[in-house]
Amino acid sequence: MIDFYYWPTPNGWKIGMMLEECGLPYRMVPVNIGRGDQFTPEFLAISPNNRMPAIVDHDVSGEPVPVFESGAILVYLAEKTGRFMPTDAMGRKETLEWLFWQVGNIGPMAGQLSHFVNYAPAGQDYAHTRYANEYNRCLGVLECRLEGRDYILGEYSIADMATWPWVLIAKPLGDSLEAFPNVRRWRQAIKERAPVQRAVDLGSEYRRQAPPDDRERDILFNQRAR
């Protein structure tokens, strides 16, 4: 059994996708980020960066294994199951290249853009434009990569699972994907997979229904080193 520490965000969806695709037994443990659950000592012992997602794998010999950071979790689960990551040296290299591209490029750019679209005060035009342009640039990189390929590596892999949630939310972020036909085709093909649908629906009851109040904003956006 895997404990899956989760809140419904794109980073959480991609781990849910992998768990569902592999058919691994798991238990969802909701971590309410608006309430500050991510700062409890119990959670910090698992995820010292106080971010979701994280897992604890009990299906191991010896002590349970905690894993934090979504990219590391995907690699861990791929190696555990022998699925969704090539085992040859070149295939593994390409997987890690595109996985690190996601965690260092399209994910952070989309995350920052989402903040300025959904939460920032009016008048933050420079920041909004900066991240919108970077997100669009990343979509262009993905468009070129998907030319002549069904998926990022040719075969469906953790590189697709990592990237797809950040493209799923393109329209709310202000990008129609009209300029990216390969990305649109790829996005739809993955969206139709039943395990993906289950992952996106996971914890839907926890999705935000109203803007954060002042206390929640302090917890979400005003943290510093302590």
Can you characterise this structure?
- The chain is of the alpha+beta class.
- The protein has 2 domains: 2-83, Glutaredoxin (3-Layer(aba) Sandwich); 89-199, Glutathione S-transferase Yfyf (Class Pi), Chain A, domain 2 (Up-down Bundle).
- Helices cover 52% and strands 8% of the residues.
- It has 9 helices and 4 strands.
- It has helices at residues 10-22, 41-44, 70-81, 89-118, 125-145, 158-168, 181-191, 194-201, 214-221; strands at residues 2-6, 26-30, 54-57, 65-68.
- A 4-stranded mixed β-sheet has the order 2-1-3-4, covered by helices on one side.
- Strand 1, helix 1 and strand 2 form a beta-alpha-beta unit.
- The mean pLDDT is 93.
Question: Any chance you could write out the topology, listing elements then pairs?
Answer:
Elements: E1 2-6, H1 10-22, E2 26-30, H2 41-44, E3 54-57, E4 65-68, H3 70-81, H4 89-118, H5 125-145, H6 158-168, H7 181-191, H8 194-201, H9 214-221
Parallel strand pairs: 1-2
Antiparallel strand pairs: 1-3, 3-4
Helix pairs in contact: 1-3, 1-6, 1-8, 4-5, 4-6, 6-7
